[in-house]
Amino acid sequence: MASVPSLASSVNQRVADALASALPEAGGADPLLRRSDRADFQANGILALAKKAKANPRELATTVVEGIPTGDLIKEIEVSGPGFLNITVADGAIISTLAARAADDRLGVPLNASAGTTVIDYAQPNVAKEMHVGHLRSAVIGAAMVEILEFTGEKVIRRHHIGDWGTQFGMLIQYLLEHPHELDHRSGDGDEQASGEEAMSNLNRLYKASRALFDSDEEFKTRARARVVDLQAGEPETLALWQRFVDESKIYFYSVFHKLDMDIRDPDVVGESGYNDMLVETCKLLEESGVAVRSNGALCVFFEDVKGPDGNPTPLIVQKSDGGFGYAATDLSAIRDRVGNLGATELIYVVDARQSLHFKMVFETARRAGWLNDDVKAVQLAFGTVLGKDGKPFKTREGETVRLVDLLDEAIDRASAVVREKAQDLTEAEIAERGAQVGIGAVKYADLSTSAARDYKFDLDQMVSLNGDTSVYLQYAYARIQSILRKAGDAKPAAHPEVALAPTERALGLHLDGFGELIAEAAAEHAPHKLAAYLYQLASLYTSFYSECPVLKADTAEQVENRLFLCELTARTLSKGMSLLGIRTPEKL
Prior knowledge:
20 helices, EC 6.1.1.19, ligase, aminoacyl-trna synthetase, four-stranded parallel β-sheet, four-stranded antiparallel β-sheet, Gyrase A, domain 2, 13 strands, alpha/beta
């Protein structure tokens, strides 16, 4: 079905037409329509246009108003102050527009006419290492951006650039070669969660043992370093053992992502090793084009505006003086692959803000090489740090980094307690299922309701609270609506444009109508927190409506149906918005 023009765009068009008629030289000018506290909308653009045309702004505003018909769309319009227009839309126009949205599976949200292909690089754990709280934000923010962009019609290619290469693998592989049973699974129950935990405990044990030996035994250290050379040369036995580490780590990664209610697919996992075959050519292309130069034997790219503490330029080192390749070579090769082979028109890197300088230099290098240009852009969706309640980086009491799986388990336990306390007719199995949905939703929403660039405090007490800006508040609003719809009996939701609306109905309706424009904004600005803020406001407006407007006991049958219609569309919008953030909306809570 075709997208539904919002009330804002329809009103904007009416004002623009009248403005072009009153001031022909301003044809195509933007009336600068905004939501307003004084009316439904305010047009703020006339002041600047009058100034430019050397006209009296109030007179121009009055002429514009005379050219705008009232009735079907606009109920009333008045000139305010030095030339602002206060515009109130008709009740019937609100309901008619919402009815058109309700008739569409996409809630009238348009597809982006200029959609392209975006590669999103997110959720990047390291092989043979435990996932900790620092891995949370990349996964949660990236997954939400995937959903939002796909909903707007973008072709999205997921990439999980896992850390699966480097010198530490020489140590691990050599140790496994000398202790061949260290990765054997001891339980055979096949349980995904247990095998994930078991895989990690095996890897942890092996990593600690190999590190201890590496630090204490010079002969082992020599053998381990020789093994790195074998790995980089592609020696078959070494590669086979390396693959075991990758496979074992994936069992663990996938178990954690499953707990996060996140879909990570094997073909999308292309780690550092996936670009090994391109590294030599990447360096050759950069050196031959003059983008990179040799400095003390290393292949470097220099920048005017990047200097170290000593005032000298700090280069991006693509190849070290010993011939080894750094992260830059891999990242630049990945850009070549994503643009050349995957056809990307945009690259989004969901990476910690502390890596901003690295990516700034990588992107600038790729631009100089011609791999990025006006048609292909790369951006870092940089995120801040997860802090504890004390405002310091989140650590355990012992000062250790918090394991991600422990954090998620605790969130589920806390949420299950909240669900159990409120549950009236849920079985134990349902409480467990809802507890997971509420707990994981709480963790995701706390992250996504904060601008990615900001640090945020991880406070489980606040996250699972039924009050305030939490996912639990939104989930309960959704479940409450489902309860009302179940109790409605023979009364069915139906739009009645002829029925007059109470102030809280109007406020709810106008907010519902802004869903499509909000989605477009969140997609264009890579800002999932704007969607979270919209949904929280929607739930708040619904709460006000519900407390002031009886639904099932409204005065007339038409009013009952109209209010049920508003309830149902609110529920659908909440559910769709929450799903784009990766959060479930249980029918009963």
